[in-house]
Amino acid sequence: MAKRKRKNKIPIIFIALCLAIVIILGIPYIKELVATTSHEGETVTVEIPMGASTENIGQILKENKLIKSVTIFKVRAKLSDNGSKMNYGTFNLNDGMCIPDIINTLAGTYAYRPTVMFTVPEGFSVQQIAARAESLGLCSKGEFLEALKDDYNYGFIRDIPRKDGVHYRLQGFLYPETYEFYADSTAYEIIDRMLHQFEKETKDIKIPDGKSLYEVVTVASMLEREALLDVEMPRIAGVIYNRLEKGMRLQVDATVQYVVSEGEYNINRVTYSDLEAESPYNTYRISSLPVGPISNVSVMGIKAALNPEKHDYLYYHTDTDKNDGSHIFTKTYKEHLSTQ
User: Fold this and answer.
1) Three-class secondary structure of residue 165 per DSSP
2) N or C, where is the chain less crowded by C-beta within 10 Å?
3) Considering its fold, how many domains does the chain have in total?
4) pLDDT attached to residue 281
5) How many angstroms separate the CA atoms of 62 and 53, rounded?
């Protein structure tokens, strides 16, 4: 009589082991999914912005360690009568709260606070941003400029050099964007939000060896002021690097405007006497980049500074015939003069 072949039990054991691991790892999430009662824990204050989606709220709660899974939170919110009634504002929650209690708290406490829309265009200086904040009643210009000296917890700030002659160390790093701030926001909160946005927008940008983020932002800050047309940014960047390579002065008018107007950019023309202004920002007087950024920059400006157009141009000036903000680029000073 033939012997029965022994069945291979290894796959069954392996599958059972995998299931056990999945169950063990998933226990905290299963508990969160079915939990309906809260327990004592630590108070956590969260800020839910106006217009936040359930996904956004879940992300905020997870970042504050109030929930473990955004997906589970969305499921519980969908099943809850109050899931579509969650409000924005400031809430004191508890890290021992179950998801239903969190949802009910967010839905039951309506914390209305008036807001202000705050638009910062590309190429605005911190001085211009401060003036706009004051005009909108958010804070005074002096408070804003003073708050620039405070400490902010962002990694890129540690790499900003401390140089003599720099007006504001954070110049260049307040990201241009349209923001919605609470009307009673402090200058510190406004600046912190803009620095956070800079970090978010630039997190995937790689700075090549031999360059620093500060140098790139400094170049980008000139591009933001010089190029009215975005398409010309890489070409103007090429002129800047060509002149630096040849040891020429950059002679960028925007750097003179920055000095003469004290960062307000409220002058339309640069005079010959302005070109003589003594300042480490004045590229008509120094043979290098300005000591620091002269405006705040966008990702587009940074990318243009990192990817200059390859050409032999050393000069450019506004094309007054087209009068569309474009420039005429030339290789020699003689050509430069002949096209004016």
Assistant:
1) coil
2) N
3) 3
4) 97
5) 14
Nearest to 324 by CA among 244, 206, 228: 228
- Does 12 reside within a domain? no
Domain assignment present for 185: yes
Query: Distance between CA 66 and CA 57 in Å, rounded?
Result: 11
Q: Is residue 305 part of a domain?
A: yes
pLDDT (tens digit, 9 = 90+) per residue, 83-103? Answer: 888 888 888 888 888 888 899
Q: Which two tokens stand for residue 207?
A: 């700075």
| 184 and 219 belong to one structural domain | no
For residue 93, the model assigns a pLDDT of 87
* Exposed/middle/buried for residue 272 (C-beta within 10 Å: 0-12, 13-18, 19+): exposed
Does one domain contain both 54 and 100? yes
What are the residues whose beta carbons fall under 8 Å from the beta carbon of 133, sequence distance 6 or more?
Answer: 118, 139, 141, 144, 187, 190
Could you give the CA distance from residue 311 to residue 117 in angstroms, rounded to a whole number? 42
* Residue 234 and residue 310 in one domain: yes
- Whether residues 107 and 125 share a domain: the answer is no
Residue ranges of alpha helices (H) inside the chain are 10-34, 54-63, 70-79, 99-108, 126-135, 141-147, 155-158, 187-202, 213-226, 233-245, 253-260, 299-306, 333-338
The CATH number that applies at residue 92 is 3.30.1490.480
Which residue has better confidence, 182 or 315? 315
Instruction: Judge if 106 and 187 occupy the same domain.
Output: no
Residue 207 lies in a domain: no
Domain limit, last residue, from 145, 175, 202: 202
CA–CA separation, 4 vs 118, rounded Å? 80
| Residue 31 pLDDT grade (very low, low, confident, very high; cuts 50, 70, 90) | low
Compare 30 and 53 and report the one with higher pLDDT.
Answer: 53
Q: Secondary structure of 260-307 in the HEC alphabet?
A: HCCCCCCCCCCCCCHHHCCCCCCCCCCCCCCCCCCCCCCHHHHHHHHC
